[in-house]
């Protein structure tokens, strides 16, 4: 059994020294346990936060522990009457080729709706984040303008499509022209801005949003968000989902203060974590599955092959090397 452990707490951008590969024995499942072969591993920006030893909404990783996170796997041996060999299950056992799971810590997934990998993306954590963060905090109304940063990623690409379903004008901000073409041509975004090539992002947002910005779904923070804030309408809502542009900085982020903008615009800003909505996951999952089946939602996955490439895939998130959900397919058949 191969595992990837947290070898060192990163300062700044993680590198290969952050990770340690080890081989361990497979633990046979005891009563109420199953042995699972990992098929897909999710790599997610929030994992960067867990590498620091600081209190947050999820506990930090311990040094020399397996890097935990979402996985899809197949039950290869079962000592539980709730699971049979061959069941496809979702677990949080992270970066390892096999794991022994307690029956109450995994759940079977529906293989019939869409490929199993979607349960780590559009039908899983990132899809639900988009659903609740947009609809509960952003509350877009028909005809309003919704701006999304990190727009071509796993969460952002779903936010934009849900905003279109709700009848909004949708403006995405992403890092490459290829991503922006995808947003407009494939996903139906009205406008898309490349923050890496623009000369004046604030002006570009104003041009793309002739009626101003009513909802800002923020995945990245920093200067991109400052530029969106300058274009807010009265009663605008800001849904703070993430701040990936700041996850690897050393020290505190310093920027313009936003209080006066919020006052002048009677605007509101709310952070959230997906787990605030844990009791409503069935509602979100049903809506996402239905829209997917009706063809109202599309999705993209960037899938890297090979267990050994998991750390590289994780680092790709900070380089923008993904469109849609970034996953690793594990080669342990
Ligand atoms: P993505 O699929 O969006 O991948 C990350 C993307 O972020 C990259 O592709 C890159 O795209 C962009 N990015 C990376 N560095 C920067 C930078 N310095 N400035 C601007 N953009 C950057 O990841 P997810 O969809 O999984 O997550 C998106 C955000 O949502 C993250 O901030 C994450 O932490 C947050 N999140 C929050 C949750 C919650 O419960 N609150 C749950 C899940 C995710 P590009 O080419 O455009 O730069």
TrEMBL record:
SUPFAM superfamilies tied to this protein: GroES-like (SSF50129), NAD(P)-binding Rossmann-fold domains (SSF51735)
Record InterPro entries: ADH-like_C, ADH_N_2, ER, GroES-like_sf, MDR_fam, NAD(P)-bd_dom_sf
Record's signal peptide: none
Pfam family, one: ADH_zinc_N
Gene3D superfamilies the UniProt entry points to: Medium-chain alcohol dehydrogenases, catalytic domain (3.90.180.10), NAD(P)-binding Rossmann-like Domain (3.40.50.720)
Keyword Oxidoreductase listed: yes
Keywords attached to this entry: Oxidoreductase
Lineage: superkingdom: Bacteria
Domain Enoyl reductase (ER) intervals: 15-328
Segments crossing the lipid bilayer: none
CDD domains: PGDH
Key word Oxidoreductase present: yes
Protein name: NADP-dependent oxidoreductase
Species this chain originates from: Gracilibacillus caseinilyticus
């Amino acid at each position: 059994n191969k595992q990837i452990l947290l070898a060192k707490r990163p300062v700044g951008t993680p590198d290969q020294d952050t990770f340690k590969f080890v081989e361990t024995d497979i633990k046979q499942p005891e009563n109420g346990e199953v042995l699972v072969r990992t098929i897909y591993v999710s790599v997610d920006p929030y994992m960067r936060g867990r590498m620091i030893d600081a209190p947050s909404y999820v506990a930090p990783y311990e040094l020399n522990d397996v890097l935990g996170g979402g996985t899809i796997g197949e039950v290869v041996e079962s000592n539980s009457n709730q699971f049979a060999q061959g069941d496809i299950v979702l677990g949080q056992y992270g970066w390892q080729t096999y794991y022994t799971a307690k029956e109450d810590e995994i759940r079977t997934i529906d293989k019939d709706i869409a490929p199993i990998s979607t349960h780590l993306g559009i039908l899983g954590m990132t899809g639900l984040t988009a659903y609740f963060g947009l609809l509960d905090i952003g509350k877009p109304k028909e005809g309003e303008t919704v701006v999304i940063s990190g727009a071509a990623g796993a969460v952002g690409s779903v936010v934009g499509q849900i905003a279109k379903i709700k009848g909004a004008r949708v403006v995405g901000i992403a890092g490459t022209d290829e991503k922006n073409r995808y947003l407009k041509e494939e996903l139906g975004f009205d406008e898309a801005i490349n923050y890496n090539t623009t000369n004046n992002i604030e002006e570009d947002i104003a041009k793309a949003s002739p009626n101003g910005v009513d909802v800002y779904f923020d995945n990245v923070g920093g200067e991109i968000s400052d530029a969106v804030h300058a274009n807010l309408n009265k009663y605008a809502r800001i849904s703070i989902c993430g701040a990936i542009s700041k996850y690897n900085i050393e020290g505190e982020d310093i920027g313009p203060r936003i209080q006066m903008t919020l006052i002048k615009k009677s605007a509101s800003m709310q952070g959230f974590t997906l787990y605030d909505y844990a009791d409503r996951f069935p509602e979100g999952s049903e809506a996402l599955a239905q829209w997917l089946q009706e063809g109202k939602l599309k999705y993209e996955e960037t899938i890297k092959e090979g267990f050994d490439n998991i750390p590289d895939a994780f680092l790709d998130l900070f380089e923008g090397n993904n469109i849609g959900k970034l996953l690793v397919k594990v080669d342990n058949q």
